[in-house]
Amino acid sequence: MDLSKSSRNSVIPSYLYSFSSQKSSSLDAPTPTATAFNGAAAAAAASASSSAPRSRSFVVPSPSEPFGKIELYSPAFYASCTAGGMICCGLTHTALTPLDVVKCNMQIDPAKYKSISSGFGVLLKEQGARGFFRGWVPTLLGYSAQGACKYGFYEFFKKYYSDIAGPEYSAKYKTLIYLAGSASAEVIADIALCPFEAVKVRVQTQPGFARGLSDGLPKFVKSEGALGLYKGLVPLWGRQIPYTMMKFASFETIVEMFYKYAIPTPKDQCSTSLQLGVSFAGGYLAGVLCATVSHPADNLVSFLNNAKGATVGDAVKKLGLWGLFTRGLPLRIVMIGTLTSAQWVIYDAVKVFVGLPTTGGAAPVAAIELAEE
Fold this sequence. Notes:
Elements: E1 20-21, H1 25-28, H2 39-50, E2 56-57, H3 75-95, H4 97-108, H5 116-127, H6 136-165, H7 167-172, H8 174-205, H9 213-224, H10 233-262, H11 272-306, H12 312-326, H13 329-353, H14 365-372
Antiparallel strand pairs: 1-2
Helix pairs in contact: 3-6, 3-13, 4-5, 6-8, 8-9, 8-10, 10-11, 11-12, 11-13
Pfam families: Mito_carr
Subcellular location: Mitochondrion inner membrane
Keywords: Membrane, Mitochondrion, Mitochondrion inner membrane, Repeat, Transit peptide, Transmembrane, Transmembrane helix, Transport
């Protein structure tokens, strides 16, 4: 297989996006004899001309193009992915704030919040319905910033690393490309998230500390200094980097398997609703894996941001190794599974809206044929 004739966009995009044909100018021009035919013969000649072989080039199939055609890996492409990431992460995390509040309190005070059901009951009794939405502002702003960096830089690093590896190795080790791209993106995304996460946890787990971000942020800085906002950065990396690597790599793989083994129709021939359904299913399965892998670090982040001067050793001593891996895990699986599936649907819906294809999927036949020429 000669991959040297692939487009400059490297091989990795051929596993994610479709190719389509374009007419060459020489084939579109009418033949001299066509003018001598009557109307019916001219129509037949035009029909035959349209079925002749045509040159192929890399284009994005666009069900809608409200902003004009967006070229892959152009500034407009990365801007669209960044906007999609900001919307999908900000909205979904904010919508699940009640689950997050209960989860964080179960991690901080397991003696008081013994289970999911009792946790909701205790919170409702002590803080009322408003207690379930404590910290929603830092959640919205923090995860919007994180999502923008996570998805935008993932698309950038995926392309960047595939170009470094070259066509042959990019195709052979595409999963490693997904892992490296997502890890690099998450390092940047967590720097944006960390200050908001610190304030969010303190507001959610210490009633009376602050009403929200506006008064919680200056109070936090006054108490622990500006650098205190990044006290949980390393544990946050420990939670989010494995989580994101699993989230993106497993999603890409699961979606590819769906189109390869479960759906008989090629992806580029599937309806938009079916493709978004695949994104939802793939996202939920990926979310279950994400939650399990990253949960110990999630417990550490909640513990360290709740107690001033707390250390990792203090967390392990209080929660125990078993508690570190299991405390709040069932609730987090439900939360992250729902969260991840919703994020992928919203993200891909934004891409479809601007005329881009959905994420993931088996290599289309046209791409394989082009690579083999």
